[in-house]
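Reviewer 2 asked us to include a model.

Predict the structure of this chain.
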Amino acid sequence: MLRLGVIAALTLIAALACALFRPDWRGFPLDDAYIHLVYARNLAAGHGFAFNVGEPSIGTTSPLWTLLLALIGALRLSDLRLPANLLTLLFFVASIPLIYLLAERLLRGLRARPGEAMAFGAAAALLFGAAGNPLWFALDGMETTLFVFLGLAALWTYQRRGLSPAAGLLLGLLILTRPEGALLYALILLVHILRLRRAALRDWIGILLPVVITLTWLLYAASITGTILPTTFRGKTAAFVHTGWDAPDIWRYLRDLFDYLRRFAPLTWLATILSPIPLIACALRWRASRGRAALGLLAAWWLAHLAVYTILFRFPYHHFRYLALLFAISAILGAAGAFVILSPALARAPWARRALLAAVPLAILIASWPNLRFWGAIYRHNVSHVRYLHESVGAWLRDNTAPDDTIAAFDIGAVKYYSHRRVVDLGALVDPAAAPYLADRRMGPYLIEQHADLELDLGNRLTGTDKDDGLLYHRLPIRAFSVAPYDDPLPPHSRYIFAYGILPIAPPPLTAPSVPR
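Predicted model (structure tokens):
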């Protein structure tokens, strides 16, 4: 009963921490959230996976998130902003008990007493649930918290029941949420194979379910785009994401990541520093434990997830939302590391144990308060940024352009959601054919191919459409939009949007060659 009370209290604290952000239930801190809403709206209306009706595409790396929103849209809800925000918050809050349970199980494996496991398990839950950066994830309108929830749920189910059909289903859904979910499946499958000599029918179901779910989606995606790879990956690497083995760039990315944590998520930074301690303790047999396998699996998942993004997708934007899983795992491992450090003091002073155990989660709550206020302000600035820039542009297009006009834009989410116009994606997230032009920083020919009537330029020359002004078309200034600057840990790539009319230059008429007499 006490355990349930602790879980309920932790969940309530996470919900109250979210309330301190003063959420805007009909706004998002990221324009990308609207991309999912557009796909979901079209899917619910019977148009299939398509950003522009009649043009099938897979411009999302999270089909499960899109499907969830489409199911809600099928209930004839005209506005998906509120459901999207409520779902992200729901999955965030639902992750808190899982972090507590995984941490408590790990701590018991490290020979913690019940009270110690409870106190440091609560600390792990608070390191994630009462931290500002993860709460920003909880209100981003994206698949971020769904991925964290499904990953933790799959790991918890596997630890309790092995690779059961339930664990297999969760792993399959995790992969549909984000492709890197396959990392946890691969690690669990490896551990399972090493532990078992023969697999029962129940094991085979758990092993094959993720494969069947993933292959079904990949075959569907290939039938639409001709490839199983997400189009978003190619677009982002063409724009500003670094990929591949480049040792200096990798070192710079990791240095910037840990400097970011130190400055803007100090409790996560501290938890990350403490994370190797339980591994070292087990390796040196300071804490020989039956939980060594669980500890190794958590650490391997943390390292694999970081390695994939460090090598393949160095994306220093969106407040590192793609690494949200690392915030959760670091909280668990960091709490275990704190226990290993403090356990000698707990053993020497049993009279003070109860006070010390109560002080650990309380200290985290007190230390979280300034960070919560800081991130609450960042969240509100980001929401205002999207509202007064991207959403305003979308509404202006709806009121000032013809229904059959084609709009070319780099940030396409809110523009499409509010304008209901055909939108050409200059960021190559929706159409992979745009990626080579974007990589060359010369999208002018693509504008002509797509018969764009109006272009929304960010003013940073990322798309290079200005290079063909006067060659392929004339850009006619129509209107400029902007937002005031503000402090942000990772400043957004756009503060301005300039609307240009696109007037193609007619090619010179072909003349017949002169024939000599």
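The first strand starts at residue 50 and ends at 52. The chain has two domains: 2-379, 380-504. We have added this to the supplementary material.
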